[in-house]
Design brief:
single chain, Arginase, Chain A, Hypothetical upf0131 protein ytfp, 8-stranded parallel beta sheet, 20 helices, binds N-(4-aminobutyl)acetamide, binds zinc ion, His_deacetylse_dom_sf, hydrolase, repressor, metal-binding
């Protein structure tokens, strides 16, 4: 069993005489035994809680906490939120000795694996949160952190899902309210900062005004796990529980400290003041942390510590953290340490965040405030435009720093830029006519290859070079950044062909079949740019110079593309076919790919299909992940699939 338990102490007054808070920690090695049945890798792995525990020990903070071993949940407590059937099914898993029977049960749930120790771990995880919450409610401890697994917040009354078997936090909340009325806990605030929506917890307290459930999560209009509308901000609870369920559904990935703290300052904190909880339970998943492979967000340990600190102003600091998700071992260990240091109140929080929230963040926050202001008057004020107009600046172009030839490249850029200026001058006096006309027309450029990564695409507009690129781009004559960016999927087949490219070296580049196929979906990042800029992108994509006297796509060609769907260009080149994918806000969506004839040659093998190079894949994955379209896992699988399926 644990090296925990024995190191328990009550040394919460520090040697400097300052009184510190009595912080409980639960850790029990037994919960590491829950694992995949055949030793396959899985992000929800035993090392998650081990690395957290080791970090707290190495930092010397666990020694200053009251350490508790795990304790098993009682059936009757689990049944406060789960059905009898669900509790006995999970209990039976340990006695069903055959793996195949457990595998069959697991396969009937969504994202669940089971082994012979899963049941024991699940009972310990739930029981440990109950025990810790009880001690905090009684006042024996001031606050605490239960380092438990399997996680809990996806588990529904009659269903395990999303790596969760029992809803640990929900069981603890119901236990305090229903089984221990003498403790005087009448109102509980549950905060769920796991990157996923706490669908299970929401269900369990849907009609219950004693529990205010607040979940902030990546939602992407229902596309992010757990998919659907449950995590929408319109889901406010029902009956007596109406207004006591608050969802903050991010529309995109990459959210960081600024976004989370904005949700705290403009939603959670004002509501918490009005609700005035007797205790706070925190579904503390660390999968919104920077570096998490599933979350794609960017919260730093500093961000977590500020969020936690702000919550400690309520319920006289009675707060219980329970681990939920979090899959980057280093990130979860550091974030956990930052949180425990806040619980101990041993030193001021160090750090800073410089960015502003995303535009989409303000949109979400305003929508939530509007919807919830019917129940929480403090949300009724309109946010000042000074506040919501603070935006994160466009990321600067990243130059390769690991490359030994950096200096040559720098020279190269200077060289090309200066030539560009001369040409600019020349263009101004001689052949500006097409540029002037086309600069007045907007198009959406739909990218499906490396241009999905914004810094890479910006090289075609502003000039420059990013990690992995072999050459410097001169950019467009008009260096204005895209006016708008959005993501969409189109029913075209993505594939990779050609032996190598000038930009990425050996390996295929991305094409789409210009013909639609309703069985296929290609993710595309759409940039709203001028038709002049689109021509400069086309020039560069096809290896041509940007100082041409005539455009590849003029106003007549644009009309033709809109009418016919696609038009091959005189330039030839790999991307010698301009395709119109439709319209958005009355602006045509254009992309560039090969011709239908070339697709036939790819099919017959006359032109080879080729998987993309590593640098190219990495750039596409970065685009999909940083653009908030897919998780890293999903992005890799998506590209892998396109690169390996026969045409
Ligand atoms: C607890 C948690 C995530 C499930 C993701 C399934 N679950 N694809 O983070
Ligand atoms: Zn999660």
């Amino acid at each position: 069993m644990a090296m925990a338990g024995e190191s328990s102490n009550n040394n919460y007054g520090d040697c400097d005489g300052k009184s510190h808070r009595k912080v409980g920690l639960v850790y029990d090695e037994t919960m590491c035994k829950h694992d995949t049945p055949n030793g396959e890798d899985h992000p929800e792995c035993p090392d998650r809680i081990r690395v957290i525990w080791e970090k707290l020990q190495l930092a010397g903070v666990s020694q200053r906490c009251v350490v508790l071993g795990g304790s098993k949940a009682e059936d009757k407590h689990l049944q406060l939120v789960h059905t009898k059937d669900h509790v006995s099914l999970v209990k039976s898993l340990s006695t069903k000795k055959k793996d195949y029977r457990r595998n069959r049960i697991a396969s009937q749930w969504n994202s669940i694996y089971l082994n012979g120790s899963s049941s024991e771990a699940a009972f310990l995880a739930a029981g440990s949160v109950v025990e810790l919450a009880e001690k905090v409610a009684e006042g024996e401890l001031d606050c605490g952190y239960a380092i438990v697994r399997p996680p809990g917040h996806h588990a529904e009354p009659d269903e395990a899902m999303g790596f969760c078997l029992f809803n640990n936090v929900a069981v603890a909340a119901s236990y305090l309210l229903d089984e221990r009325p003498e403790l005087g806990v009448k109102k509980i605030l549950i905060v769920d900062w796991d990157v996923h929506h706490g669908n299970g917890t929401q269900k369990m307290f849907w009609k219950d005004p004693r529990v205010l459930f607040f979940s902030v999560h990546r939602h992407e209009h229902g596309g992010f796990y757990p998919a659907g509308d449950d995590g929408d901000y319109n889901m406010v609870g029902e009956g007596p529980g109406e207004g006591f369920n608050i969802n903050v559904p991010w529309e995109q990935g990459r959210c960081g400290d600024a976004d989370y703290l904005a949700a705290w300052d403009h939603i959670l904190i004002p509501v918490a003041k009005e609700f005035n909880p007797d205790i706070i339970l925190l579904s503390a998943g660390f999968d919104a942390a920077i570096g998490d492979p599933l979350g794609g967000c960017r919260v730093t340990p500093y961000g977590y510590s500020v969020m936690l600190k702000k919550l400690m102003d309520f319920a006289q600091g009675k707060i219980v953290l329970a681990l939920e998700g979090g899959y980057n071992l280093d990130s979860i260990a550091k974030s956990s340490l930052a949180c425990v240091q806040v619980l101990l109140e041993d030193k001021p929080i160090q750090g800073s965040s410089e960015a502003y929230p995303f535009e989409s963040t303000w949109r979400v926050i305003q929508a939530v405030r509007k919807k919830l202001s019917a129940y929480w008057p403090s949300l009724a004020d309109v946010l000042s435009s000074n506040l919501i107009n603070q935006k994160t600046p466009t990321p600067i172009i990243v130059f390769s720093s690991s490359d030994s030839e950096t200096e040559d490249y720098a020279d190269d850029i200077l060289d090309q830029m200066s030539r560009l200026n001369i040409e600019n001058h020349h263009v101004d006096t001689v052949s500006t006519s097409w540029r002037r006309d086309l600069s007045k027309v907007d198009v959406w450029y739909a990218s499906f290859g490396s241009n999905m990564w914004k810094p890479r695409f910006l090289c075609y507009i502003q000039g420059g070079q990013v990690e992995g690129m072999k050459k410097v781009c001169v950019g467009s004559m008009d260096k204005t950044p895209p006016k708008q960016i959005m993501w969409e999927s189109f029913p075209h087949r993505l594939f990779f062909g050609r032996e190598s490219s000038v930009t990425w070296g050996v390996g295929g580049v991305a094409f789409i079949n210009p013909l639609t196929d309703l069985n296929d979906q290609t993710h595309m990042c759409l940039y709203r740019i001028t038709l002049e800029q689109f021509n400069d992108v086309l020039f560069q994509e096809n290896g041509l110079k940007v100082d041409s006297d005539s455009p590849l796509v003029d106003l007549d060609t644009l009309q033709l593309v809109e009418k016919k769907g696609s038009v091959p260009l005189a330039s030839g080149g790999w991307y010698g076919n301009v395709v119109c994918l439709g319209k958005e806000c009355d602006v045509p969506i254009l992309t560039m790919t090969c011709t239908v004839a070339a697709v036939e040659k790819f099919k017959s093998g006359e032109i080879p299909l080729r998987p993309p190079s590593e640098a190219y894949v990495n750039t596409m994955v970065r685009g999909l992940v940083e653009g908030g379209r897919l998780s890293e896992e999903e992005a890799k699988a998506y590209i892998d699939n396109a690169a390996s399926k026969p045409l």
